Amino acid sequence: MESTQANPGLLCSPEDSQRTLYPYVTGTSVVALKYKDGILMAADMGGSYGSTLRYKSVERMKPIGKHSLLGASGEISDFQELLKYLDELILYDNMWDDGNSLGPKEIHNYLTRVMYNRRNKFDPLWNSLVLGGVKKGQKYLGMVSMIGVNFEDNHVATGFGNHLARPILRDEWREDLSFEEGVKLLEKCMRVLLYRDRSAVNKLQIAKITEEGVTISQPYALRTFWGFSAFQNPTAGAEGSW
Amino acid sequence: MGKAVIDVPPKGGFSFDLYKRNAMLSKDGVQLPPFTKTGTTIVGLIFQDGVILGADTRATSGSIVCDKNCEKIHYMAPNIYCCGAGTAADTEAVTDMVSSQLQLHRYHTGRESRVVTALTYLKRHLFSYQGHVSAALVLGGVDFTGPHLHTIYPHGSTDTLPYATMGSGSLAAMAIFESKYKEGLTRDEGVQLVTEAICSGIFNDLGSGSNVDICVITKGNKEFLRNHLQPNPRTYVSPKEYSFTKKTEVLLTKITPLKEKVKVTEVGDAMEE
């Protein structure tokens, strides 16, 4: 009798594995922050198939129930699967018809459990999720990774956003940003991501959630600047480089 | 006639002799010793009158900080400085070597060194070692053709840019540059922006830390601001001095001077020079 510890190939050999091994259609970073009246979240609308920009109108942020907004990066099909689970969760919650509704903290906890349990079965949902919401005046912003790591913070970002947007947010985020200031800060982060993340597209949506509800903006593009004089003739002094 | 193996001296370039031995060792589970990497944030930008280079001062060996205040901005020529990221030994050696080559070249030509000369020496050397010399450099200087800023990658490719960042903290620093850089910065604005970018690397990247070094190069003048900013001071110093309790009691103190063993007597002629 062969021990599975000595030979882990017996447990999950690639040939008969039905588990998620790699992501196929992926979305890039999501950036979110808390502002005076609630949460602001931004994500672009690109779905990349490896290195091809395959889908350019993917909505990666969706409202959940009355009080929450979910943004996801990573495998798009797994995000759609999660939306189905959450649909069912909200449906059952509504069926109780008891005047209570699931708030962002509860949804965040549910998502953490789902992600962690899938990871334990070696069949992860290949996503990094951002969950934001307002319930009874309390603002909540949290993140869950594909292995079930979850935490709550004043500003979060997934993927490349962690390296490019988080430093900016750490410097410039303040407790009561107005809506305009929050949007400007988010656009600053999304612009840097557009310049420096190869899978970013210049078509983004900004979503806002407050006590009143969720609004997801129409897709729009950011203005970029390429007019540096050094870009006009880069090899002026150094032939052969670029 | 037997098989005569002629010993030919190596022609230069990387010697792959130990490659097989290393591969065999790593297969048996022996890990390579972690070399001192500078896990770094280095930046450069071009402003109105010249170039400003910046760097953090942390050197890491694996997950240990081995030098809290090292110097990553290396001298190449009176008008050219180079920041180095990657393996510390590689950046030191390569910048030292090219600095000497530049000096010889200056003697040969009788002119001030040009930044493209340093660039070419560096990229030719790095390319010939096919990326094994792990040095990622930000080279900046002002020569008679104007201010120049280049990045050089370990495999030997180069970029000419108005602002550049390298090292593990490069993304954090680049986020600052991309959101705040504009053309025609004054000296103070430039130094402020470089400091902000390095601080972003120091506080958001684990491989970078400690202090900010700055070097401002303009036509005919350079300012090396070592530890321009020290945002990580040692705030708590214990008021009690270190005191070690005497463990063994002293019973007796006796001093015995060593006797001279050899008596030297001058006999005969003094030794001739």
TrEMBL record, chain A:
Q: Which residues form a coiled coil?
A: none
Provide the alphabetized UniProt keywords: Cytoplasm, Nucleus, Proteasome
Gene Ontology CC entries for this record: cytoplasm; nucleus; proteasome core complex, beta-subunit complex
InterPro entries this protein is in? Ntn_hydrolases_N, Proteasome_alpha, Proteasome_beta4, Proteasome_bsu_CS, Proteasome_sua/b, Proteasome_suB-type
Where is the protein localized? Cytoplasm; Nucleus
One Pfam family it belongs to: Proteasome
Name one process (GO BP) from the record: proteolysis involved in protein catabolic process
Domain of life according to the entry: Eukaryota
Instruction: Give the Gene3D superfamilies listed for this entry.
Output: Glutamine Phosphoribosylpyrophosphate, subunit 1, domain 1
Q: Which PROSITE patterns match?
A: PROTEASOME_BETA_1 (PS00854), PROTEASOME_BETA_2 (PS51476)
Transmembrane ranges, per UniProt, are none
Function of the protein: Non-catalytic component of the proteasome.
The similarity comment for this entry is: Belongs to the peptidase T1B family.
Under the subunit heading, UniProt states:
Component of the 20S core complex of the 26S proteasome. The 26S proteasome is composed of a core protease (CP), known as the 20S proteasome, capped at one or both ends by the 19S regulatory particle (RP/PA700). The 20S proteasome core is composed of 28 subunits that are arranged in four stacked rings, resulting in a barrel-shaped structure. The two end rings are each formed by seven alpha subunits, and the two central rings are each formed by seven beta subunits. The catalytic chamber with the active sites is on the inside of the barrel.
PANTHER family, A to Z: PROTEASOME SUBUNIT ALPHA/BETA
Official protein name in the record: Proteasome subunit beta
Q: What species does this protein belong to?
A: Rubus argutus
Automatic annotation (TrEMBL), chain B:
* Entry's Gene Ontology cellular component terms: cytoplasm; nucleus; proteasome core complex
One GO biological process this protein is involved in is: proteolysis involved in protein catabolic process
What SUPFAM superfamilies does UniProt report for this protein, alphabetically?
N-terminal nucleophile aminohydrolases (Ntn hydrolases) (SSF56235)
Superkingdom of the source? Eukaryota
Q: Which InterPro entries match?
A: Ntn_hydrolases_N (IPR029055), Pept_T1A_subB (IPR000243), Proteasome_bsu_CS (IPR016050), Proteasome_sua/b (IPR001353), Proteasome_suB-type (IPR023333)
Which GO MF term does the entry hold, naming one? threonine-type endopeptidase activity
Main location per the UniProt record: cytoplasm
Mind telling me which Gene3D superfamilies this protein's record contains? Glutamine Phosphoribosylpyrophosphate, subunit 1, domain 1
Query: Which residues constitute the catalytic centre?
Result: 40 (nucleophile)
Catalysed transformations (reactions): Cleavage of peptide bonds with very broad specificity
Query: Which UniProt keywords are present, listed alphabetically?
Result: Cytoplasm, Hydrolase, Nucleus, Protease, Proteasome, Threonine protease
Q: Where in the cell is it found?
A: Cytoplasm; Nucleus
**Assembly and binders:** Component of the proteasome complex. Component of the 20S core complex of the 26S proteasome. The 26S proteasome is composed of a core protease (CP), known as the 20S proteasome, capped at one or both ends by the 19S regulatory particle (RP/PA700). The 20S proteasome core is composed of 28 subunits that are arranged in four stacked rings, resulting in a barrel-shaped structure. The two end rings are each formed by seven alpha subunits, and the two central rings are each formed by seven beta subunits. The catalytic chamber with the active sites is on the inside of the barrel.
What this protein is reported to do is described as:
The proteasome is a multicatalytic proteinase complex which is characterized by its ability to cleave peptides with Arg, Phe, Tyr, Leu, and Glu adjacent to the leaving group at neutral or slightly basic pH. The proteasome has an ATP-dependent proteolytic activity. Component of the proteasome, a multicatalytic proteinase complex which is characterized by its ability to cleave peptides with Arg, Phe, Tyr, Leu, and Glu adjacent to the leaving group at neutral or slightly basic pH. The proteasome has an ATP-dependent proteolytic activity.
Spell out the family assignment given in the record's similarity comment. Belongs to the peptidase T1B family.
Q: What is this protein called?
A: Proteasome subunit beta
